[in-house]
Amino acid sequence: MSAPVAHRAAELPGAGGPGSVRAVVMTMGALHEGHASLIRAARQRVGPRGQVVVTVFVNPLQFGAGEDFDRYPRTLSEDARLAAEAGADLVFAPAGKEIYPAGEPEVRISAGPAGERLEGVHRPGHFDGMLTVVAKLLHLTRPDVALYGEKDAQQLMLIRRMVRDLDFPVEIAGVPTVREDDGLARSSRNRYLSASARRTALGLFRALSAARAVTRSGPVSGGMSGSAAGPAAARAAAQEVLDGAASHDPPLLLDYLALVDPADFRDVPGDHTGEALLAVAARVDGTRLIDNVRLHFGASS
């Protein structure tokens, strides 16, 4: 069984009955278990009387020169089946001309300074393109709540800022990262990894796990656990793992490892206490992957 597919905004249903809530899950297709977890969370939020809409649109504005727009997987039939199994009522899969009828839009949403950090450095203009299509899809689908994965943490932060700063009448909810059995964060790009590339890619998860371990137990010396480590030790623990993965075949090529404030993605100082986000991005055999983990420094939360 597959979810019905709408290709035009005019085909989208109106609001449900009294008390009905609509949730939207935005994707670029090639759905996997991570997307399914978002859809299930959306169904739980809206209940049996609510509506869950899944959008499938490979947004050209998010891809820079040399990125994988043309080879990005398009699997709409399988996406509609997975969406239905996870609890979606409808898949909205517009063509490019439906979203951008006059071609690439001249007026776009700007991500501002927060969009120029980390991912913004390595993918200039990516977040402007992402926010522009998110804004359009929010207008077209008119949800009460929109759900996004926490793996794309900078994206989630910027969507929340856009909704707050521009007074969009929608709640933005984050859903925890879904991982495969070996710890690799689920991504549509994982299908590009060979067996050897996947072994290298696991360095991202192992690096984050090493940082989390030292913040919980601190350095170990003489068989005795020390107090929980600070930001510098967390970064160092992760960097050591990533340096090891750089010598694998194929190697892990690091774009960045950064410990940032989740609110604005600025680097945290060495004496930081409270919550921080350790974010990493790297390329393995031509495939770019990102991941992150939340850490807490100072007194136990």
Total count of domains: 2
State the helix count. Answer: 8
- What overall form do the CA principal axes indicate? globular
CATH class of the largest domain: Alpha Beta
**Low-pLDDT segments, ≥5 res:** 219-225
Q: How many DSSP-defined strands?
A: 11
**Averaged pLDDT, please?**
93
Helix content percent band: 25-40%
Model description:
Residues 219-225 have low confidence and may be disordered. 33% of the residues lie in helices and 21% in strands. The radius of gyration is 20 Å and the shape is globular. It has two domains: 5-175, 3-Layer(aba) Sandwich (Rossmann fold), CATH 3.40.50; 188-297, Pantoate--beta-alanine Ligase, Chain: A,domain 2, CATH 3.30.1300.10. Helix 1 (33-46) links the parallel strand 2 (22-27) and strand 3 (51-56). The protein has eight helices and eleven strands. The strands form three sheets. Strands 1-4-3-2-5-6 form a six-stranded parallel beta sheet, sandwiched between helices. Strands 9-10-11 form a three-stranded antiparallel beta sheet, with helices on one face. Strands 7-8 form a two-stranded antiparallel sheet. The protein starts with a strand and ends with a strand. The longest helix is centred in the C-terminal third of the chain and has 23 residues, at 195-217. The chain is α/β, with parallel strands linked by helices.
Outline the secondary-structure elements.
Elements: E1 5-6, E2 22-27, H1 33-46, E3 51-56, H2 76-86, E4 90-92, H3 96-99, H4 119-122, H5 126-141, E5 145-149, H6 153-165, E6 171-175, H7 195-217, E7 220-221, E8 224-225, H8 231-245, E9 252-260, E10 274-284, E11 287-297
Parallel strand pairs: 1-4, 2-3, 2-5, 3-4, 5-6
Antiparallel strand pairs: 7-8, 9-10, 10-11
Helix pairs in contact: 1-2, 5-6, 7-8
